[in-house]
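Lab notebook, bench 4. Still working through the backlog of constructs that have no structural model yet. Next entry is a single chain of 119 residues. Request: give me the structure tokens for it.
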Amino acid sequence: MTRFSTLLICTLSAASVVLPLQMAQARPADPGTASTEIDLSSLDLTSAQDWDTATKKIRQASHAVCQQLQDENWLFMSDVTDCEQDAASNARDSLYDLRDQQRTRCRNGHVLLALSARK
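Model written out:
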């Protein structure tokens, strides 16, 4: 029973991984700031294809957020590119952490599944 519960928790944790940035409309924040969330829960960041998909979503979200700041006159047109690069760089750091978490969870899940299959 304990093995099953641990496996279930590991599976649910891995299934609910979300980077704190979901690709939707940027939600209001403090004046001169903008943020958004990107839902990456369906991606396996250990695969090259899903990693590329995640980085593409980050680039798109970075563009949208920085464009919003420019539209609201918080950024000059010439600063948008730097803003996008900074936003993408910050999100990429979180993406690496998320990938490490997925690797750890999957490794644990496979071990637990193997132990459960023997019994």
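Notes after review: The chain has one domain: 17-101. The chain has three helices and two strands. Flag for follow-up if needed.
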